[in-house]
Amino acid sequence: MVLVAAADFDAAQLTKMGKDEFGGIERPAESLPIRDEGKLVVSGGLRAGSFRIRDVGFVRAAVASVAPLPSEPDSAALRVKLQQANFVQALLGERLSDDLLPTPGGDAGAEVILGHRAAMASVMADPKNWEKNVGAMDQMIRTTYRWGFESAEYEPLRQRQLRMAELMADLFPRSDPHEVCQGLLSSLVENRVYVGPIQEFAWMRDWLREVTAEELLAVYR
């Protein structure tokens, strides 16, 4: 069992309280078995679903590129790679949302699922325009892969995220201690080093200040 606390408290007093409360629990004679988190089946197929809004039928089509996380040890460089992957997927999401008119909307994002990185994109369409809009999404992904992003596209997002990183780093010392506790617990469960949001935002600021269109294209690819 791991007890995590974050706040303005007396460490010795809290340690005593922890021992008084939990000290009577016997240590297991054997180590707990490794938790089975399941297996992610990697597929190159198209995932699709349909739903209805106010009795008007719409279809969402989603595609995903899935790959195992790098086997390299946790490091600042690996964290930066994940930040950059989220950035380029946000750029792709803006392209899909702004350029695939008259669809209700396109979107893109990046997630870490069961030890895999997933770069995802999706688009919504009415049934009559299903084929056209899915084809437009496919073409947008391929065009971006070839030509990348223009400075007029990534510069506004770069400035917004740079400002956000600066503000969040300043606000974090006054944030709810629960966020620190949750971050520490997550790092233990995921076997990652806990560096804290201030360090994460510092890494983000460093690469955002100097990132180029060529670097963003390499990350996207």
Quick structural overview:
With 221 residues, this protein is of the alpha+beta class. It is 50% helix and 18% strand.
CATH topology group: Cytochrome Bc1 Complex, Chain A, domain 1
Mean of the pLDDT scores?
A: 81
Tally of helical segments: 7
Largest sheet: 4 strands, antiparallel
- Name the beta content range: 15-25%
CATH superfamily descriptor: Metalloenzyme, LuxS/M16 peptidase-like
Helix content: 40-55%
Query: What is the level 1 CATH name?
Result: Alpha Beta
Low-confidence stretches: none
* Overall number of domains: 1
- How does the helix and strand content classify structurally? alpha+beta
- CATH A-level architecture: 2-Layer Sandwich
Shape: globular
Strand order of the largest sheet: 1-2-4-3
Work out the oligomeric state of the chains in this entry: single chain
How are helices and strands ordered from N to C? Answer: HEEHEEHHHHH
- The total of beta strands comes to 4
Radius of gyration: 22 Å
Structural description of this entry:
With 221 residues, the protein is an alpha+beta fold. The protein has a single domain (42-220), classed as Cytochrome Bc1 Complex, Chain A, domain 1. The protein is built from seven helices and four strands, in the order H-E-E-H-E-E-H-H-H-H-H. It has helices spanning 11-22, 76-99, 130-147, 151-171, 177-189, 197-210, 213-220; strands at 47-53, 56-68, 105-113, 116-125. A hairpin with a 2-residue loop joins strand 1 (47-53) and strand 2 (56-68). The longest helix is centred in the middle third of the chain and has 24 residues, at 76-99. The relative contact order is 0.14. The mean pLDDT is 81.
